[in-house]
Amino acid sequence: MTDKINIEEIFAQNVFTLDTMRKWVSEEAYNEVINVMENGGELSGKTANVVAKGMKDWAVENGATHYTHWFQPLTGFTAEKHDSFITHPDKNGKMLLEFKGKELIKGEPDASSFPSGGLRATFEARGYTTWDITSPAFIKEDATGKILCIPTAFCSYKGEALDKKTPLLRSMEIVGQQAMRIVRLFGNYEAKKVIPSVGAEQEYFLIDRENYLKREDLIYAGRTLFGAPAPKGQEMDDHYYGCIRERIGAYMKDLNVELWKLGVTAKTQHNEVAPAQHELAPIYETSNVAVDHNQIVMETLKKVAGRHGLTCLLHEKPFQGVNGSGKHNNWSLTTDTGMNLLDPGDTPNENIQFLLVLACIMKAVDTHADLLRQSASDVGNDHRLGADEAPPAIISIFLGEQLEDVVKQLVETGEATHLVEGGVLETGVSTLPDLLKDATDRNRTSPFAFTGNKFEFRMVGSADSIGDPNTILNTIVAEAFCEAADRLEGVEDFELAVHDLIKEYMTAHQRIIFNGNGYAPEWIKEAERRGLPNLPTMLDAVETLTTDKSFALFEKFNIFTRAELESRKDVLYETYSKTINIEAKCMIEMSSKQIIPAEIRYIKMLSKAVLLAEEAGVRATVQREILSKVTDELEKMQSALVKLEAELKAAQRIKEHKTCAFYYRDHVKTAMEELRAPADALEMLTDKEVWPIPTYGDLLFEV
Ligand code: ADP
Ligand code: MG
């Protein structure tokens, strides 16, 4: 790689940006695309052909051989099937490359092998992918060559969404429409659109690939299922923001270049709290593009790692005892004229539009805390939420001192007449300037925190798509905006009415505000007293999708049909069972084929050592003591293994998806923990040469 990186030159080099499109298609076609992007509708067949040809010519000139409809099924990953641009050679044997409008706009992958939760019977296996014109096409470069990727939505023959993107796009339109009604109430006729923006901070671990390949749990489950703690963890706080080591630095440099080429605005990079843990944050952008880009980020993190002899772990909890990884979803709403609806300005107490927006968000989050929590759940995140490193599983809003005080004044007196000032931060050093303090401090323990001009939803798991959380956020806020607009449009005395509504909403929903320590055990009791839902695990949250409240919300705005919600629920239960099933099988395999045989060899070594020592006429007390401890733990391990095997068989026999998932959680997972304990104890007793797999020390500190 060259030393000098010219970001301006490489940025979006592999993206069919609007600028690029303008160069490769006629002005007429370009204008039609812009019109559809901005106002919806469909491209004419003629324009679709022109755009497809331009896109293909650009891609081919840049070395692409294939195209793919790139989509996001309910697996949470992306999917692609490559087709080359080749056609029948002409009669002289010459190859003419081709890509038609209908191939750009619509694809027909067989949908039968993607999770559909029963939406699609095998006899109607056909699925459709449709071009998402609002997210730019890009060229992916790897060992496969160069592939033109066209971001698409994926649905069934009957139009039911089978992916994470379709509902997201629906929710973006809805929140935009309802937010426009709010903006109009305040006399703004200039803005034509409100768009949700998202910036997703991504945490990840990097470990040595050689070590990774020696651990079946990492290979099959993405996390360690065994492992005694290393002598050192994260207690010295020396990794967070620590100096980036050479090998990791080289990786990050390479990663940034790859991402920049793909138009991803990789901006911030740093070491995270746990050893071997890091973070990458892009600059925020329109939410569906942010969702696509987060998928690209995850894929690129993994791909580039391979080139550096590293493996990237995106799992929410790869290692017990040190922090896991999350993804902070920063969210705001902006008009096409650049006004951020979440910007309080210097005097939030006088900014009535902001206060109304805030009141609506409080209402939305309080009313649908259950759905928001559900949207951030996945199997891996169960190890994080509610532990002391991640937000609790209870949803609450952090507003900061100043805004909380404004809300309090409004609730108590109906007026917010004054502001708590941030004041000056005195450094006490004459050569350092005194800084103006922000009126909002940070609260790292809050799941939903106001951070200046955006809300930061901190519950999302590192491996999860941010599609669902944003779909939910957009929809619940749209509902609150809609109700507020219904009440306020056409009233005689707007000022009085809006004032009353803000007070009403804030009073009714103030229980959702919590500025204290979300990790404190007292908070759980307090939240219960306030009537806030506490859904500690993923499975506890699944049913929130099909309550009457949920049906009413999603059907009103055409985000999900009942059938889609039922199907998603089913996919969640199945995914849960399958994931734990893999983990349990992996533990059984590692126990039976690696750990127990190694311990039997170790016992043999120790037994010989005892005999030899005694034969030589010296005491063998230490050898005996270790031998007996190892034997004790090995016995425990063997019986735990037998129990896990039995529980797994029992779970596998259960047909009904929900019952099965709960059995995995309450029986199989417990049996897995019981197997891990003696194995981890054995690791501490065993000769390093004999222990068959790399330890936490090797994995976390040998990078
Ligand atoms: P912090 O979380 O430390 O406050 P930043 O201010 O750097 O971090 O922002 C974190 C993420 O939030 C970045 O991806 C950033 O682009 C994004 N972000 C900043 N402003 C907004 C906004 N108005 N809407 C959505 N995301 C935003
Ligand atoms: Mg943050």
Short note summarizing the structure:
With 703 residues, this protein is an alpha+beta fold. It has helices at residues 7-10, 18-24, 27-39, 45-61, 101-105, 165-185, 209-213, 216-221, 246-261, 287-307, 352-367, 369-375, 401-413, 467-488, 494-509, 521-530, 538-542, 548-556, 562-615, 621-653, 657-685, 696-701, and strands at residues 66-70, 82-84, 106-107, 127-131, 138-142, 145-156, 194-208, 266-271, 277-282, 285-286, 310-313, 327-335, 397-398, 424-425, 435-436, 448-450, 455-457.
Can you characterise this structure?
The protein folds into 4 domains: 7-162, Glutamine synthetase, N-terminal domain (Ubiquitin-like (UB roll)), CATH 3.10.20; 164-200 and 330-559, no CATH class; 202-326, 2-Layer Sandwich (Creatine Kinase, Chain A, domain 2); 575-701, Four Helix Bundle (Hemerythrin (Met), subunit A). The chain is 48% helix and 12% strand. The chain has 22 helices and 17 strands. Strand 8 (266-271) and strand 9 form a beta hairpin. It is globular, with a radius of gyration of 28 Å.
